[in-house]
Write a structure and sequence with these properties.
17% helix; 2,3-Dihydroxybiphenyl 1,2-Dioxygenase, domain 1; five-stranded mixed β-sheet; single chain; 2 domains; alpha+beta; 2 helices; four-stranded mixed β-sheet
């Protein structure tokens, strides 16, 4: 069965991005490659789920309506308490939230990484059995109150 292996992002400043994905998302650096111009990070499922490659000063990701990557979503735990704690930590670290949403099947926070890529941090709702019923797909996205 296919599963997503990893995502690769070009970044302006490697250490700044490593810090974000370590302290905000919760990934663990696995090591540097390419003469210390890239870092592999893992959430523990595989050797790396994210590879960051430093390219220096370059145009950032396109915004608004466009073709291409919209956002990357990271499951960060199993409960709303984890999401609340993550929100507190994100704000304490000085990051701005772009939004928070209840998708019925999951609840999410949205923010930008240092290079402007949108990142979703989410937890699944354990009361929704997405395998047994697709009814959640028809539900509107609702504001999330944490």
């Amino acid at each position: 069965m296919p599963e997503l292996g990893h995502v690769v992002l070009y970044v302006r400043e490697l250490q700044r991005s490593v810090d974000f994905y370590t302290h905000v998302v919760g990934l663990t650096p696995q090591g540097n490659i390419f003469n210390d111009r890239a870092t592999m990070l893992s959430g523990g499922r595989t050797h790396h789920e994210l590879l960051l490659i430093e390219v220096g000063d370059a145009p950032g990701p396109l915004q608004g309506r466009r073709v291409g990557l919209y956002h990357i979503a990271w499951k960060i735990g199993e409960s709303l308490d984890v999401l609340r704690e993550t929100k507190r930590r994100v704000l304490e670290l000085g990051h701005k939230l772009d939004g928070q949403s209840d998708h019925t099947v999951s609840q999410s926070l949205y923010l930008r990484d240092p290079d402007g890529n949108e990142v979703e941090l989410f937890v699944d709702d354990p009361t929704v059995d997405w395998r047994a019923s697709k009814a959640w797909m028809e539900q509107p996205v609702k504001p999330l109150k944490l």
